[in-house]
Automatic annotation (TrEMBL):
It comes from the Bacteria. This is cysteine desulfurase. It catalyses: (sulfur carrier)-H + L-cysteine = (sulfur carrier)-SH + L-alanine. Belongs to the class-V pyridoxal-phosphate-dependent aminotransferase family. Csd subfamily. Gene3D superfamilies: Aspartate Aminotransferase, domain 1, Type I PLP-dependent aspartate aminotransferase-like (Major domain). The keyword Phosphoprotein does not apply. Its cofactor is pyridoxal 5'-phosphate. Keywords: Aminotransferase, Pyridoxal phosphate, Transferase. Residues 2-370 form the Aminotransferase class V domain. The lineage of its organism: Bacteria, Bacillati, Bacillota, Bacilli, Bacillales. CDD domains: SufS_like (cd06453). It comes from Fodinisporobacter ferrooxydans. GO terms for molecular function: transaminase activity. Its EC number is 2.8.1.7.
Length: 381
């Protein structure tokens, strides 16, 4: 199988990740923070080390401001529902995944928050000035995807973060498609909250993710319950990360995530991005040979994450995915991609799209096979 669906979840995982998870299950799978015995202590140390490595990778000053979640969606829900208050105004974009849009629309219905969706062009590119123009007196948050999961288009975090800081607005970034591929520094980019998955370009397992929360921001917890400390109190503890981590953490998954981050540090983010962009360039060049194929997203490679979505005139994207899977053993994502406004902007709401997304372990030979398969499918039409 040639796996080209890394924007959904990276595969395969580095051997170090699998080994770290197996070691945890065999050697120290105690409950972190729920006892003082050796296994619980070892589990707690691994989780703390993972917080430290995440902090180091993203320019986070204090490891306790890294909150572990099960995925980016949970992180975004904690950030959005925990921060916004009735009457607040939020600026966001048409590029957002439903993991941003649905919580915002829920808050709009329940708490009468206001939402402004900033437009993007047909390539998925946004003018930061449109965000600046949307500012209101009650604007409390800007939330934006670093890169679209449909078009791959990248936004300028530096300029938006500078604007947010100047006006005292919380800047929440969804880094689902960029954490581990693009450099992100929360201090330099003035990011107050950063949501990211462990299972994509950080090469950890599914069921892992995190939310960075700036020390100045207090969130209402999404869940309440046991945290391993302050057990005598009926109230949720104030101390981080306990306040936002009720219940047992996914120690096995976090051990794998730690190994995934160490793998990235060893290879270097710049090297990973260069490899993935080289493959992306090859895909774009190959698909551009055909008049029947419409490629979504920016033409300029530097404005694109390693994601290529496209539409073949006269062929349903779901059918294309079925053909690639059954006859060529190639895995791609097809259909609608949980981002309806981005589909609307790109003109693909009715057709959906096929999405090819590469990872560090993909090769040029695999891309050649994919492009050959596309050429054969087009010949049969």
């Amino acid at each position: 199988m040639i796996y080209l669906d890394n924007a959904a979840s990276s595969f395969p995982k580095p051997p170090e990740v699998i080994n770290a998870m197996m070691e945890c299950m065999k050697e120290y799978a105690g409950n972190p923070g729920r006892g003082s015995h050796a296994l619980a202590n070892q589990a707690a140390r691994v989780i703390f080390q993972a917080r430290q490595e995440i902090a180091k990778l993203f320019g986070i000053a204090h490891a306790e401001d890294v909150i572990f979640t099960q995925n980016t969606t949970e992180s975004l829900n904690l950030a959005i529902q925990g921060f916004l208050k009735p009457g607040d105004h939020v600026i966001t974009t048409m590029l957002e995944h439903n993991s941003v849009r649905r919580p915002l629309e829920y808050m709009k219905r329940k708490y009468q928050i206001e939402i402004t969706y900033v437009s993007v062009d047909s390539k998925g590119l946004m003018n930061p000035q449109d965000i600046y123009s949307a500012l209101k007196g009650n604007t409390k948050m800007i939330v934006a995807s670093h890169a679209s999961n449909l078009t791959g288009s990248i936004i300028d975090l530096h300029s938006i973060g500078e604007f947010a800081g100047k006006h005292g607005i919380c800047f929440l970034v969804d880094a689902a498609q960029t954490a581990g591929v693009l450099d992100i520094d929360v201090h330099e980019m003035n990011i107050q909250m950063l949501a990211a998955p462990g299972h994509k370009s950080l090469y950890g397992p599914q069921g892992t993710g995190f939310l960075y929360v700036h020390p100045s921001i207090e969130l209402e917890p999404l869940m309440y319950g046991g945290t391993g400390g302050n057990s005598e109190s009926i109230d949720q503890p104030k101390v981080r990360p306990d306040r936002y981590e009720s219940g047992t953490r996914n120690t096995v998954g976090i051990a794998g995530l730690l190994a995934g981050i160490q793998f990235i540090q060893k290879k270097g983010i710049a090297n990973i991005r260069d490899h993935e962009l080289q493959l992306t360039r090859k895909i774009l060049h190959g698909l551009n040979q055909y008049e029947r194929i419409k490629i979504l997203g920016p033409d300029q490679l530097s404005l694109r994450a390693p994601v290529v979505s496209f539409v073949i005139d006269g062929l349903d994207s779901t059918e294309l995915g079925f053909i690639l899977d059954k006859y060529y053993q190639i895995a791609v994502r097809t259909g609608l991609h949980c981002t309806p406004l981005a589909h609307k902007a790109s003109g693909s709401s009715d057709t959906g799209a096929a999405r090819v997304s590469v990872g560090f372990f993909n090769t040029e030979e695999e891309i050649d096979i994919f492009l050959y398969a596309i050429s054969e499918i087009l010949k049969e039409m």
